[in-house]
Amino acid sequence: MIELNNMIWDIIVIGAGPAGSTFAREISKLNKTVLVIDGQTAEKSKPCGGLLAPDAQKLLAHSDMILPKDVLVDPQIFSVKTMDLGTGLTRYYQRYYMNMDRYAFDLHLMSLIPENICITEGRCTGIAQDDGLFTVQVHQYGDIAQFKCRNIVGADGASSIVRRKFFPDRPISRYTAIQQWFAYDGQEKPFYSCIFDRETSDSCSWTIHKDGYLLYGGCFKSEGCREAFELQKERFEAFSGIELNEPILTEACQACRPKHLRDFVTGEGNLFLIGEAAGFISPSSFEGISSAIFSGKALAEAFADSNVSASYSRKVRHLKYKLYFKTWKRAFMYTPWTRKLIMKSGISSIKVSEKQENYEDDQY
Ligand SMILES: Cc1cc2nc3c(=O)[nH]c(=O)nc-3n(C[C@H](O)[C@H](O)[C@H](O)COP(=O)(O)OP(=O)(O)OC[C@H]3O[C@@H](n4cnc5c(N)ncnc54)[C@H](O)[C@@H]3O)c2cc1C
After folding, report:
1. Ligand 1 centre distance from Cα of residue 264 (Å)
2. Residues 24 and 143 in one domain
3. Is the N-terminal amide bond of 18 cis, ω within 30° of 0?
4. What is the domain count for the chain?
5. Pocket test for ligand 1, best of 156, 165, 195, 219 (most atoms within 8 A of CB)
6. Are residues 300 and 178 in the same domain?
7. Residue 206 falls within a domain, yes or no?
8. What is the distance in A from the centroid of ligand 1 to the CA of 77?
9. For residue 355, what pLDDT is reported?
10. In whole angstroms, what is the distance from residue 174 CA to residue 221 CA?
């Protein structure tokens, strides 16, 4: 049995979300000693819509990966109902997401990390750098442990301690994401929705059905976020006729919103950032799983090269530009008059025969 804190690791990875798990799986092919530290538990799991977008599905295909059915939830839906609460417009668009249990997805990715990579539970609370070595302080099992390493990979998401500690001059704009779970009463047909409401948020919100629950979530400016969320739910209820009642669960976390190219930070020296910690998330849809997987794999591959930093930066250059160009898409989507124009024109929308009444009676 290895004493985890008696050795100097080649690499310590902080966080085992999609970015950290992908990095760990891929780096296992190189001859490195790697420790992954992760603080996620069933009780404190990552709030997420849990939709696997086509880009993420394509990356799984490239890695020849499969998803067991217990990662998926009921139902799978093929369109998104886009509602603009300000103009009263509604349109349907075809979508190709997979509806998942996000925690089960993270556990599945972790289960694919080979045994030559060590994983330990705990919350990293501090990192010090001295003489080319890092000392990582971790709260685990009611105690404090310390681990030493030569390279740090920050895969610790939107509130990354690695980014805050080592790149304080590269802050990124963040929203507070709030998501609530409601018992689904089976009255209306399950649907995904994308909700625009400029009165309460300059981002979109969503509803998603999952295994007997209806989720309502959105991203809000941190100041006054809870009031904005509550007001938006009321406006949504009035618009859609759907009553949300008492939530069973309320979750919240930070979500990054890159605005400029400088918001993407891949690291320097022996410090690296992947996934949302690096700023890799779509500023228009907040889809981030594909970028997390892509950047995790890119960094692992870069470790095979002599200049890891430069190689990693090269490998994610097009991802940075792709996400940066989404800030333009965002400007288009979130400006009320351009959105109205697009929705009114019906471009790319599909016709859906809505039959919400007596949905329960019609199911079989
Ligand atoms: C409400 C919401 C809904 C979203 N919906 C979708 C969606 O439907 N589809 C989609 O593609 N994207 C979605 N996103 C974005 C997506 O969830 C993230 O971009 C993606 O999870 C980023 O992956 P990651 O591995 O970089 O970070 P994360 O998934 O955040 O993983 C970070 C990991 O690091 C751990 N960690 C953090 N800090 C520490 C620490 N100090 N010590 C130890 N461990 C630590 C965490 O426990 C976690 O396991 C959503 C985001 C939010 C906020």
Report:
1. 16
2. yes
3. no
4. 2
5. 156
6. no
7. yes
8. 23
9. 57
10. 8
Give me the CATH number covering residue 182: 3.30.9
| Domain extent at residue 83 | 79-99+174-256+338-362
Which pLDDT value is given to residue 3?
Answer: 67
- Same domain for 185 and 162: no
Residue 74 in any domain: the answer is no
Model pTM above 0.90: yes
Residues with CB under 6 Å of ligand 1 are 14-20, 37-40, 46-51, 53, 56, 123-124, 155-157, 161, 177, 179, 217, 253, 255, 275-277, 281, 286-289, 292
Same domain, 206 and 228: yes
Buried b (16+ CB within 10 A) or exposed e, 79-96: bbbbbbbeeebbbbbeee
Kindly give the pairing relationship between strand 34-38 and strand 8-14.
parallel
pLDDT average per 10 residues of sequence, the chain (364 residues): 79 98 98 97 95 98 96 95 95 95 98 97 96 95 95 98 97 97 88 95 96 97 97 97 94 97 97 98 96 98 97 98 92 84 88 60 40
CATH code, 138: 3.50.50.60
Q: Is position 60 within any domain?
A: no
> Which residues, in sequence order, are bridge partners of residue 143?
140
> Do 245 and 184 fall within a single domain?
yes
Shared-domain flag, residues 206 and 353? yes
User: If we measure between CA atoms, which residue out of 363, 352, 354, 343 comes closest to residue 194?
Assistant: 343
- Does residue 69 sit within a domain? no
